[in-house]
Specification:
The complex is a heterodimer of chains A (about 280) and B (about 475). Chain A has ten helices and 16 strands. Chain A is of the alpha/beta class. In chain A, helix 3 runs parallel beside helix 4 and helix 5 runs parallel beside helix 6. The two termini of chain A are about 25 Å apart. Classes of the chains: A alpha/beta (about 280), B alpha/beta (about 475). At the A-B interface, helix 1, strand 7, strand 14, helix 8 and helix 9 of A face strand 5 and helix 13 of B.
């Protein structure tokens, strides 16, 4: 349990790992997440499952270095064992044959959207995927998404790859010309999910987002992840992580996402001071 | 051996006070507040015991400890025998010796309670358990026949651990599934270090593992595997997953950044050791002025933890009066000594914040007490127009817990009541599904460690009876 079987660096800041977790691989469904700890003194961080191999008993996680824990995670090697790896947590994506659906992934959200798109396609949907990032190097899992979707559109903010522009701009174009779209999934940075939900409000098409709240236990015990959806307090860990994006109180959600910002920065600084050769090590592997 | 002193002499003696860290020092550390009796103090206190012919103290002990007997062993200075005596029925003596509300349990029934100086049974129990641990004295169990039957227990809190130990002593093969990365449940995530050092929990858990109990951590029953699946592999089940969901006030502003549930606040500090941040990675935020809503033990723990984490002011905000406070008297006194400020007859109605989500204050109403309500306590009634604002920059909700549905919704045929707690037969602790038993907070709601221990002991006996009669959850059991 928790052994890193395969590690790949997808670009400068994003890594992929296949983790040995046979029990979780047995029961996991698209849309669910896991919580991991690197070591006993570590924090518990949730990551949406990017892929799974039931027979091999493996779970794939994809993460971007955004702070101390993800940076330290990126230094682990194949064969290393995580201190804790639990799941599958949260509710699974509601997969039905809706007809035409759009799945949108931004940044590491591309990895999260992957099993959802795949399962939607298997269920008979025409799946249009839009994946986007700031620049070409940050586009990940292109091949996987191509396979998982009926149609794949790639965008970059700077136009270095695919279409130039934001995923929401492409989405608006699609919505203008194709009125058969029945449901939309958008996973990525909070601001991208917020803008997507605002974009689709005019059409009205149900837009599902997957929230990446700060959690501790991840099983409904602490309430750290609570968010207001449709005027009611919900727990992302047990009621989500997927919610109707048009009903999410985005201001509250985004405030709560950064409530440990200064501590997180301090933690990262201390780590870097103690590991000055980190960048060299990273270049080597 | 210390001498048996004459009855008259025993009656004259006063209860030996518990040595404690002084308040002005202890609010700057997480070390235990009560320091424990010395052997001399323990003997002196034990000598007070009247050794009643028909002792009534024991009827107040859900852990079924033979109280007069272990106390007599202390008088005889045979601390090892005293330990074995306790260990016969209580598998967590250093824990129950610390966190039991003895004044509501054994000590309430002590004959000397009449004179307001009951034997300090809890302190003596703690002394014995600590002595055994420090002197490497372990429980002795005769090598017994291993039984074939397998029992799964969900949750490694006080109920799960007790049931597991009792069943292991009977020779059963017991596996505990724990969702978190450390065993102990509320003993590790809920109760602070200064009341229950985690090294002690670790030690007593290890002792239970040494009985042959297997504990699997990081395993979320209801997520990793369903209860239904467990019934295919185990002969009987004991569900002891705890209440485990925080209750909120449902007032405006409760989702502001610096509003915590007590569960979250205490879990960050106790289980994740956020008090040692950044050596430990989990952060915690503590304001200058913290308001804790509620006045139970968890509220006291939160208020005292906030002080230790650097809050300048820590307020308990409670809608009733001092008389109705549900926390143990000892906890309230400790909190008062440490400078926690109590706002009685005060009801929060709104938490005020700024655009960034920071807490700026809490609007409250003054209350007055009316006629007794269903609980027998006088009902607090808001005083119209009495609104006022307490200036705080963090709020902790410590108003109890709700049932977490994670386990119950994966258990077919195991019925729950309207609040989500398991419905059980009081005598046997069996749920509505034969072979599945339940106890502790997931049956009672927020209760005490000792009531969970009591439930677990009854359940263990029922499970033994169930299995001994040849029944099993497994359909195709060989």
């Amino acid at each position: 349990m928790g052994k890193i079987i395969q590690k790949d660096r997808l670009n400068e800041v994003i890594y992929s790992m296949w983790i040995e977790a046979p029990q979780i691989a047995q029961s996991v469904q698209p849309g669910q997440f896991i919580i991991l700890m690197i070591k006993e003194k570590g924090e518990r961080i949730p990551l949406t499952v990017a892929d799974f191999a039931r027979k091999k008993g493996l779970i794939r996680i994809v993460f971007q270095i955004v702070g101390k824990t993800t940076e330290e995670l990126s230094t682990l090697k194949e064969g290393d064992r995580l201190y804790s790896f639990i799941g599958p947590l949260g509710k699974k994506t509601e997969i039905n044959n809706y007809g035409t659906v759009v799945t949108i992934g931004g940044g590491t959200g591309i990895a999260c959207i992957h099993p959802i798109a795949r399962e939607l396609k298997v269920a008979g949907n025409r799946v249009i995927s839009i994946i986007g990032a700031r620049t070409k190097d940050l586009i990940i899992m292109e091949e996987e998404l191509k396979k998982a979707s009926t149609e794949l559109i790639i965008t970059t903010d700077d136009g270095s790859y695919g279409r130039k522009g934001l995923v929401t701009e492409i989405l608006r174009e699609l919505l203008e010309k194709d009125n058969s779209i029945k449901k939309i999934w958008a996973i990525g940075p909070a601001i991208m999910m917020k803008v997507t939900s605002e974009t689709t409000r005019d059409y009205p098409i149900e837009t599902i987002v997957s929230l990446n709240s700060i959690m501790v236990d991840g099983t409904g015990m602490c309430g750290s992840c609570r968010v207001t959806v449709g005027g009611k307090t919900k727990f992302v860990c047990t009621d989500g992580p997927e919610f109707d994006g048009q009903l999410v109180d985005w201001e509250e959600f985004m405030n709560r996402l950064v409530r440990y910002k200064s501590q997180e920065q301090k933690s990262w600084e201390v780590y870097r001071e103690n590991n000055p050769d980190f960048n060299c090590k990273r270049r080597i592997d | 051996m210390a001498e048996m002193i004459p009855l008259k002499e025993r009656m004259k003696r006063e209860q030996v006070a518990m040595p404690e860290q002084v308040p002005r020092e202890r609010i700057h550390n997480f070390q235990e507040v009560p320091l424990g009796y010395s052997p001399e103090q323990a003997i002196y206190e034990a000598q007070r015991c009247l050794q009643c012919k028909n002792p009534s103290c024991m009827k107040g002990c859900p852990a079924e400890i033979n109280i007069p007997q272990f106390i007599q062993k202390i008088v005889e200075e045979n601390f090892a025998e005293a330990y074995f005596c306790i260990l016969k029925t209580d598998n967590l003596p250093a824990i129950t010796g610390r966190v039991c509300p003895q004044e509501e349990q054994c000590q309430k029934y002590c004959i000397l309670e009449k004179y307001k100086k009951p034997i300090a049974i809890g302190r003596l129990e703690r002394f014995v358990a600590d002595w055994a641990r420090e002197n490497q004295v372990h429980g002795k169990y005769p090598g017994h026949i291993r039984k074939e039957e397998k029992i799964a227990i969900v949750g490694s809190g006080p109920a799960g651990l007790t049931c597991a130990a009792d069943l292991a002593k009977l020779g059963y093969q017991v596996t505990i599934f724990e969702a978190l990365h450390k065993p102990g449940g509320v003993l590790v995530y809920g109760i602070p270090e200064f009341r229950l050092p985690k090294s002690i929990v670790e030690y007593e858990v290890k002792e239970i593992e040494n009985l042959g109990v297997k504990i699997i951590t990081d395993f979320v029953v209801g997520a990793t595997i369903s209860v239904d699946r467990l019934t295919e592999e185990y002969d009987a089940l004991f569900l002891a997953n705890g209440a485990g969901a925080p209750r909120f006030m449902n007032i405006p502003g409760e989702n502001l950044n610096d509003v915590y549930s007590a569960n979250e606040f205490l879990t960050r500090s106790n289980l994740m050791k956020a008090f040692a941040f950044p050596d430990y990675d989990t952060p915690i935020k503590v304001g200058k002025r913290a308001a804790i809503i509620g006045a139970g033990n968890v509220a006291m723990d939160s208020a005292r933890t906030a002080l230790r984490l650097g809050a300048e002011k820590s307020y308990i905000v409670y809608r009733r009066s001092r008389k109705e406070v549900p926390a143990r008297e000892e906890e309230v006194i400790h909190a008062e000594e440490e400078g926690v400020i109590f706002h009685y007859l005060t009801l929060p109605i709104k938490i005020l914040g700024d655009k960034q989500g920071n807490v700026r204050g809490m609007e409250c109403l003054k209350m007055e007490l009316g006629e007794p309500d269903d609980s027998g306590r006088r009902k607090p009634i808001p005083v119209a127009g009495s609104n006022f604002i307490i200036e705080v920059d963090m709020v902790i909700d410590a108003i109890g817990t709700l049932a977490n549905p994670l386990v119950s919704r994966s258990a077919t045929g195991v019925e729950i009541n309207q609040w989500g707690y398991f419905i059980i037969d009081d005598q046997t602790k069996m749920t509505t599904r034969e072979g599945i038993f339940a106890g502790g907070d997931i049956v009672r709601g927020s209760a005490t460690v000792i009531s969970a221990v009591g439930d677990a002991k009854v359940a263990a006996r029922s499970i033994d009876k169930f299995l001994s009669s040849g029944r099993s959850l497994r359909k195709n059991k060989k």
